[in-house]
Structures are given as C-alpha cells and as structure tokens.
From TrEMBL:
Taxonomic classification: Bacteria, Bacillati, Bacillota, Clostridia, Lachnospirales
Classification via Gene3D superfamilies: 2,3-Dihydroxybiphenyl 1,2-Dioxygenase, domain 1 (3.10.180.10)
InterPro entries: Glyas_Bleomycin-R_OHBP_Dase, Glyoxalase-like_dom, VOC_core
Protein name: Glyoxalase
Organism: Mediterraneibacter butyricigenes
One Pfam assignment: Glyoxalase_2
Length: 120
C-alpha cells in the first residue's frame, strides 16, 4: 500500500490554488470539478462537496493536523509570505525551537494549519 495524496477542504479552489502556487510553487495536475490535484500530492476539495459527502459541518482551525513544508531560507520565505499575504493569520511567527529548528505556523485562507520549518 502507498499513501498517494493529502486532501484539504477549501471554500474557493481557485483562491487556494493561487495561495499554494504563490507560496510553495505547487501547480495543478488535474482539475476534476471540485477536486483539484496539485503537485507534491496535495488535493484541494470544494467544501460543499465534502460537507455533502460527510453530512457534517466542516471545522476549520481544528488543530488536528498540519501541512509541513521545509525551507532552508526560512527568513526569505517569511518575507514573501508577509509581502504576498499580509492578512495571513499566524499561530506563531518565526521562532527557534530548543533543538535549533526555525519554524513558522499559520493558517491558509480556509483555516488549514501550515508549518514551514528549516530542515533538521
């Protein structure tokens, strides 16, 4: 068995596609009417489809998982984040853990938690 994709729920697929392209360089591989596969295996799914399928409300900012990215030049990444998306909501701004890794955590436009850290 092989893990193929990670799916997140979004309100506006086009806005989210742009967000993940701008910050992480992810590009669309397949657009399947409410389900969009991006490079690196990230799948965006329209919130309406997911809610209908589950028959439950979506809970943004639930802190149950995060998308984790690594970036060597994290200071440049944070500058880009603040320049392109100044309205982004941070969980924590750039910090250094006791083990020396620098990280920043923030939400995407739909409340999905993202962490960007320096490689260990």
């Amino acid at each position: 068995m092989k893990l193929k994709n990670i799916m997140i729920v979004v309100k506006d697929i086009e806005k989210s596609k742009q967000f993940y392209h701008d910050l992480f360089g992810l590009d669309m591989i397949l657009d399947n009417d409410g389900n969009m596969i991006l490079t690196e295996g990230l799948v965006l799914q329209d919130e309406k489809i997911w809610r209908e399928f589950l028959e439950r409300e979506i809970v943004p900012k639930n802190h149950a998982c995060e998308l984790y990215f690594e970036e060597r030049n994290i200071e440049a990444f944070v500058e880009k984040l603040e320049r392109i998306y100044p309205e982004v909501e941070y969980v924590n701004r750039l910090m250094t853990h006791s083990w020396g890794q620098k990280v920043v955590r923030f939400y995407d436009p739909d409340g999905n938690l993202i962490e960007v850290g320096t490689p260990m």
